Amino acid sequence: MYALRLSNTTSRIFQRLFTTTTTTTTPPTLLRVSEIFASVQGEGPFLGRPSVFLRLALCNLQCAYCDTKYTWLFEEEKQQQVLARVREKQRDKLDLKVYQKSAEVRNLSVVDVAKTVLDLSQGHIRSIVLTGGEPLIQRAALYSLLESLLKKGYHIEVETNGTIRPSGFPIEGIHFNVSPKLSNSFQPFEKRIHRQVLQEFLNRDAIFKFVITQEKDITEVNNLVELVQIPRERVYLMPEGTDIETLHSRGRWLATECIRHGFRYSHRLHIDLWGNRRGI
Ligand code: SF4
């Protein structure tokens, strides 16, 4: 995936587009990357839009249901920490495989990442989704990449867990899908909810997206909406589920709850289309 070669023409276009960035701003830094691929956005307000996905490695949380543990679960110690927080009868359902960091994470320069994004865009995709892991952990290294992509007219979506401030990111052209974690993630409240950070996102182009497994999760969302004063039309509820049957049955129930509470429903289109696979 990372060995994508650019044609001579594409290389020349790339050199012109990135000359400014490489000569007048901070020198390119390394990004710790899990995967880069083109697909359609499967969640949130831009569902269905063709986009290049840049999945960054590492996360500051350890959610039990996380379906991208290959971005951060590299030590048995972390595996044991997650297990210790999960109630015994729910442990069987968890996938807690420990991944090999050297096989999962590549240190790529901003220039190489930009080249790959350009190539995967095939001349017509103008949307990039930064996801993870938690992409804002690497925000310092992301600045020059985002600056370059914005100049070329890309619309940028950032998927974040809402625990790290977005300060330093440009206001225009960047949309945040903030996904605060509920108690179903088995993370302590103080670790997963940072009220002031969430309020900062309220002043940005941002929506708030929650993964829902059961009714009590919606009560938690309602409490958080009150606490942070999030307008309901900016709240999306999304069914937890990595197989089509769970997604559909939970989704039908959740859509009805969204109508009842005035929230928006978000599907997980990529699961529906392709199942729980990587790189789609
Ligand atoms: S914040 Fe997201 S990437 Fe990090 S552990 Fe939780 S679900 Fe996984």
UniProtKB/TrEMBL annotation:
It comes from the Eukaryota. Signal peptide: none annotated. Pfam families: Radical_SAM (PF04055). InterPro entries: 7-CO-7-deazaguanine_synth-like, Aldolase_TIM, rSAM, rSAM_sf. Keywords: 4Fe-4S, Iron, Iron-sulfur, Lyase, Magnesium, Metal-binding, S-adenosyl-L-methionine. SUPFAM superfamilies: Radical SAM enzymes. Transmembrane segments: none annotated. Residues 46-276 form the Radical SAM core domain. GO terms for molecular function: 4 iron, 4 sulfur cluster binding; lyase activity; metal ion binding. HAMAP family: QueE (MF_00917). This is Radical SAM core domain-containing protein.
